[in-house]
């Protein structure tokens, strides 16, 4: 069964997310991937074979768009690599995204290690 997975990362974490996606490209391929605009660009550059739908960048409303998709049942999992050491101008939007993911009990990962555990637990099995 195919799922829709949201991939989001703060600027310094985008390369780590792109590498994570490259390691799991075979498992991601049968699923739908949604990413914020800038993250999606980095993901496409590193993983040109993956089909990635983009929404607006995070500061321009992309986090909120993904939150809305979670609320509508369109996204079944969130992989979000935040930068815990850098302040974010759109921190309120990030908190709202995390809140909505919790409200709708969507599986989430916030680091490569936890994202690997979601994959190992069968999240991306077809």
From TrEMBL:
Catalytic activity annotation: dihydroxyacetone phosphate = methylglyoxal + phosphate
GO biological process: methylglyoxal biosynthetic process
Any one Gene Ontology molecular-function term assigned to this protein's record: methylglyoxal synthase activity
Keyword line: Lyase
Tree of life domain: Bacteria
Active site residues according to the UniProt entry: 63
Record carries keyword Ribonucleoprotein: no
E.C. number(s) listed in UniProt: 4.2.3.3
Ligand binding (substrate): 10, 14, 57-58, 90
HAMAP family in UniProt: Methylglyoxal_synth (MF_00549)
Name of the molecule in the record: Methylglyoxal synthase
Species for this entry: Pseudoroseomonas cervicalis ATCC 49957
């Amino acid at each position: 069964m195919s799922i829709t997975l949201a991939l989001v990362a703060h600027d310094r974490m985008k390369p780590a997310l792109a590498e994570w996606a490259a390691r799991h490209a075979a498992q991601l391929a049968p699923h739908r991937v949604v990413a914020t605009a800038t993250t999606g660009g980095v993901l496409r550059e590193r993983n040109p074979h993956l089909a990635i739908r983009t929404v607006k960048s995070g500061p321009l409303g992309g986090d909120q768009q993904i939150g809305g998709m979670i609320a509508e049942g369109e996204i079944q999992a969130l992989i979000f690599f935040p930068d815990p050491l850098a302040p974010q101008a759109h921190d309120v939007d990030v908190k709202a995204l995390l809140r909505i993911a919790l409200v709708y009990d969507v599986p989430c990962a916030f680091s490569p290690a936890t994202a690997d555990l979601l994959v190992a637990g069968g999240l991306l099995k077809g």
